[in-house]
């Protein structure tokens, strides 16, 4: 071998060794990744990595679907169809959605078993024969209140907008806990209208005293020996103050067996008499003309 060939061969050997070393170092992270994470290249993103990725990269699409749906559609469609993320689930439901059968109560609500707890929870709610009535607001009905009423009483009534002709709906617990929706009977609808009108004209306290939650009657509550005050005595008595609390007004009814309220313009009077069997007789007058009279 000629002396001048030795440096050339040495250079070629060093070049090949450098290429081999570079290739070995490049494959080292891949081997380590396969050892640390067996799911590598299997299509599954590790949880700690997925949390740092945007939703479209991590493979989640529900949030994007919810963002595409119009607001009024998301308010009517069931949650699983609308694709609303769990943390942004709508807290209200519309009259139209309930009527269409989209009310689905959450199973996490447990019944309030004691009457004092129910009396506290339904402090201002209005009732028809121990079934609560709910009235629509600007955003519809509170799903939390409807679900709790469904757990406590097995159903409820909802009144939409009377000026739009929306009839009272009755929701009852059906087979397999599936809610059944129907238009309320004429008597229930009229009762709901009376309660709604009473609250609108006389305020929350008067409506709660007349149509609010009452404890189940007991033998000690029967007042067969108590003289029932006449309606003249009711109208001639002092009207309850406008800012009177619900509890205070109910105590006055228990004590005096009657109470009356007056509208802000002074033209309307609402009287409530406590009957001997524990029921209430309610009468509404405009001047001296009766608007309605019912026993509840």
Features:
296 residues, alpha+beta, four-stranded antiparallel beta sheet, 13 helices, signal
Mean pLDDT: 76
Helix content: 40-55%
Please work out how many helical segments DSSP would assign.
13
**Cα gyration radius (Å):** 35 Å
SSE pattern, N- to C-terminal = HHHHHHEHHEEEHEEEHHHHEEEE
Structural class of the secondary elements?
alpha+beta
What features would you describe in this structure?
This protein has 296 residues and is an alpha+beta fold. The chain has a domain at 92-215 and 227-295. The chain contains 13 helices and eleven strands. A five-stranded mixed sheet has the order 2-3-5-6-7. It has a four-stranded antiparallel sheet with strand order 8-9-10-11. Strands 1-4 form a two-stranded antiparallel ribbon. Helix 11 crosses helix 13 (246-256). The N and C termini lie far apart (121 Å). The model is unreliable at 24-88 (pLDDT under 50). Residues 1-24 form the signal peptide. Keywords: Signal.
Secondary-structure map:
Layout: H1 5-36, H2 47-50, H3 55-58, H4 62-68, H5 71-74, H6 79-82, E1 92-93, H7 95-99, H8 115-121, E2 126-128, E3 131-135, E4 141-142, H9 143-153, E5 155-159, E6 169-173, E7 179-183, H10 186-202, H11 204-211, H12 231-236, H13 246-256, E8 258-262, E9 268-274, E10 280-286, E11 289-295
Parallel strand pairs: 3-5
Antiparallel strand pairs: 1-4, 2-3, 5-6, 6-7, 8-9, 9-10, 10-11
Helix pairs in contact: 10-11, 11-13
Keywords: Signal
In short:
This protein has 296 residues and is of the alpha+beta class. The protein contains 13 helices and 11 strands.
């Amino acid at each position: 071998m000629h002396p001048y060939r030795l440096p050339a061969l040495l250079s070629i050997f060093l070049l090949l060794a450098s290429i081999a070393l570079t290739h070995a170092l490049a494959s080292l992270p891949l081997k380590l990744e396969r050892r640390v994470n067996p799911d590598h290249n299997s299509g599954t993103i590790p949880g700690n990595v997925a949390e740092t990725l945007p939703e479209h990269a991590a493979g989640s699409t529900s949030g994007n679907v919810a963002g595409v749906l119009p607001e009024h559609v998301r308010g009517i469609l069931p949650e699983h169809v609308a694709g609303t993320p769990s943390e942004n689930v709508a807290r209200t439901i519309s009259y139209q959605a309930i009527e269409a059968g989209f009310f689905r109560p959450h199973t996490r609500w447990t019944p309030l078993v004691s009457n004092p707890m129910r009396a506290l929870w339904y402090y201002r709610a209005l009732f028809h024969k121990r079934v609560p009535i709910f009235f629509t607001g600007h955003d519809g009905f509170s799903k939390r209140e409807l679900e709790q009423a469904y757990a406590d009483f097995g159903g409820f009534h909802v009144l939409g907008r009377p000026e739009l002709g929306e009839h009272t709906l009755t929701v009852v617990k059906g087979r397999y806990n599936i809610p059944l929706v129907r238009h309320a009977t004429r008597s229930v609808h009229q009762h709901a209208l009376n309660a709604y009108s009473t609250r609108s004209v006389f305020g929350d306290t008067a409506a709660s005293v007349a149509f609010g939650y009452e404890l189940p009657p007991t033998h000690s509550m029967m007042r067969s020996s108590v003289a029932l005050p006449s309606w003249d005595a009711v109208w001639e008595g002092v009207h309850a103050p406008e800012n009177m609390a619900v509890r205070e007004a109910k105590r006055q009814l228990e004590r005096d067996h009657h109470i009356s309220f007056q509208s802000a313009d002074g033209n309307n009077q609402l009287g409530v008499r406590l009957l001997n069997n524990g029921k209430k007789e309610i009468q509404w007058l405009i001047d001296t003309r009766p608007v309605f009279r019912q026993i509840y």
